[in-house]
Amino acid sequence: MKEFLKNKWFKFILITVLYILWTVWVGNYWLLLGLAVIFDMYISKKVHWAFWKKKGVKKQTVVIEWVDAIIFAVIAATFIRMFFIEAYTIPTSSMEKSLMVGDYLFVSKVSYGPKLPNTPLSFPFAHNTMPLTKEAKSYSEAIQWKYKRLGGLGKVERGDAIVFNFPEGDTVATNFMGHSYYQFVRAYGHDMVWKDKRQFGNIITRPVDKRENYIKRCIALPGDTLQIVDGEVFIDGEKSEFRHGMQYNYEVRTKGNPLSSKVLDNLGIPYDDYISSYSNGRHILPLTDEQVEEIKQFPVVVSVTRKLDPKGNGTPRVFPHSLRFDWNEDNFGPLVIPKRGMTVELNAQTIPEYRRAIEVYEGNKFELKDGIAIINGVASDSYTFKMDYYWAMGDNRHNSADSRYFGFVPEDHMVGKAVFVWLSLDKNKGWFSGKIRWSRLFHTVSSLIN
User: CB–CB of 430/436 below 8 Å?
Assistant: First the structure.
């Protein structure tokens, strides 16, 4: 059996079958030309593929073996990271208390189907900047591939914890890598953002696959009609059922001193966040439904009231950033999420809602003349979408930069599904005082968020 496994024909057939299956999955049959290389490596051996190795130098044997092992490990890890699974760390509190800052996750690429990279030439294991640098690109745009997604195990479902490339990350102020450049422009003006390099840094652009990764909960699917009423999400008129771990900001009034750090720790509320909001017996705290009921029981607590932005109190901070809409983070919509093949009428109401998707995500030249949409030089009163889109929101509803601010998540920005927590560290605690959250280790993400 051992000799059989070493047989060159067995190795050739095994590698050939795996290579053909991979080629069919990728869908690029030009890759079948690589079978000639495989045949020569295992059977004909006309080309010396290990030409860089020097023979007859015993001292170099160990070095060569190590180099071989490292090259193989890098290639294998890159392949796995690109097509199957990738590690991710929760950087912000937007998904608390479902997914917490310091959670280390595995993100499945095969759940929705891995997408081929837009920029295949890149430094291994670096996302968009070189290690130990702030702006140096870790990729080359000399070769750019169009969007293509391979077959997956399923489709995006409502309630999934999705990881995606930040839709407004096409342009970036380098002093604020993970923030929206467009929000800065709306707040401070284009000229200030571009000229004040000391505050904002340089302004750069990025391809889709090199934009910052965000993680949120998928709230609405292509074709859904979304509406938010007093902080509650409705899909096609039905109230959303996903509430586990969801929290809103509440005004908590107490008499006398603030609650003790021990009490807050037992409630799962960071004491630093609490004490920084304390002023004259008034506190603003993000709380889940369970925490609200628990905190009401303390004798020192006078009242607990959810903070809500009232209906009609519109703000251009939220999508679609138009004074025509009186939407805010707690009262929003109704808005139809675009679906591939769906046709929308283009008018004063819908143009602000769908212009970025038409122009930026789907690559059309869009102009507006006398209220008429000009798409690729043709006056148009309707548009048919080429991609599916999704709506993503954080479970920490009042402390989340999500679709309410940047709009739709296009399908070509979808990275994968968060599936497994393998480590969780509390940044506010020491190694000998509960830094490792043992109760969260080796749990599936679905068990933590549903």
Answer: no
What whole-number distance in Å separates Cα of residue 249 and Cα of residue 241?
Answer: 20
Q: Which residues of 402-432 are buried (b: 16+ CB within 10 A; e: fewer)?
A: bbbbbbbbbbbbbbbbbbbbeebbbeeeeee
- What SS3 state is found at 317? coil
Q: Report if pTM > 0.70.
A: yes
Residues 6 or more apart from 72 whose CB is under 8 A from it?
none
Contacts of 247 (CB under 8 A, 6+ apart): 96, 97, 286, 287, 288, 291, 395, 396, 397
Q: What is the 3-state secondary structure (H, E, C) of 276-302?
A: HCCECCEEEEEEEHHHHHHHCCCCCEE
Domains of the chain: 1-49 (no CATH), 247-306 (3.30.70)
CA distance 265 to 121: 47
**pLDDT tens-place string over residues 409-428:** 999 999 999 999 999 998 87
Token readout for 205 is 């652009």
Helix (H) / strand (E) element for 209: namely: none
Least confident span in 49-58, 81-90, 308-317, 348-357: 49-58
Cis peptide before 97 (omega within 30 of 0): yes
- Is the separation of the CB atoms in 233 and 257 below 8 Å? no
Give tens-digit pLDDT for 319-366. Answer: 999 989 999 999 999 999 999 999 999 999 999 999 999 999 999 999
| Tally of CB atoms within 10 A around 126 | 15
Measure CA of the first residue to CA of the last residue in the chain; give whole Å.
49
- Judge contact between 334 and 225, C-beta under 8 A: yes
Measured CA to CA, the distance from residue 177 to residue 135 in angstroms comes to: 10
